[in-house]
Amino acid sequence: MSTPSPVDAPEHILQLLSKLHRISLEQEAAISKKNGKVISTDVQDELNNKNDGSEPRSAFDQLMLDKFIALDEDKCQFMYQLITAMGATNVIEAGTSFGVSTIYLALAVSRTKAATGKSGVVIATEKEAQKAEVARKYWAECGDMVSREIDLREGDLLETLKTGLPQQVDLLLLDIWCPLALPTVKIVQPHLRPGAVILADNTISGAEGYADLLAYLRNPENGFRNTTLPFTNGFEMSVYQPAK
Q: Which UniProt keywords are given for this protein, alphabetically ordered (predicted)?
């Protein structure tokens, strides 16, 4: 017996999400050699082995430009539940791609804003204009319930996140090229409220690429308490508990 979705949304949004997850799984299965899942470190290793002289990040971005790879559906649903349980209203997504996980973030933030009366925003980040354009189309298809909650920042997130962040951030989602993860955390950390959560995808299968991030998050001196959630390929949950 399948478990019903915890996501409280109009039927047309739920149907769109189901379709987008199906497309993502089909594309991942077509290009991945490992359990039908695409891990940035695996892709990067293949690019390095080709040794064609291109800069690693540039080659990775070019390869993934038209690849529709979304955060797993069960992880998205967990994230939605977590945001509503926390009453989170200010969320940052590092790595928006085609905007599937962003829909869950926006739906959850919309609910918590309505329940708490607080203001809030989902700050989404995407380097590629082509992907950002597609994401906006999906959000528009969802309607105002989703699109009005999102502040999409195009370009290098290490630049676009330097200014204009909420004074207190409740949650940061990391679903990006591994070398960008730790620099992103260090930009956002001064804005994290006590009890804020960082979620990082593929931290078991991508542990080597995430080595610097995981070492930082797991060092108690940096104020985080961590657990690796038992989702496919790992989903790291780090709670910010800075010293008083």
A: Methyltransferase, S-adenosyl-L-methionine, Transferase
